[in-house]
Amino acid sequence: MIFAPSAAHPWRDVWPLVAQSGDGNRWVSGTCWLYCRREGVRVLWIGTVSTPGATGDVYACGPCVAELGHMVRVQSHDRDRATGHAVGAVPGHASQPHALPRH
Hints:
The chain is an alpha+beta fold.
């Protein structure tokens, strides 16, 4: 697989292809936790989610991984266009995030 030089394109435009069943990743048979909620399909672990009182592993099928990737790229493009900042750039006047209070 050959990618265009990153100096010529923003990082978001040269992302690698979305994971697909049979691509060498650790796909398993199971339930898609994302949009389609299908059971007994090839799914890939995409991360962990934490909710109040529980943590779980999230698995997604190929089409849902592709849709999630598309949504992230659209959000990234829109955010960059709205702020007028380069990808990954932080304006000099941006404040540091505040620490959460400890309980």
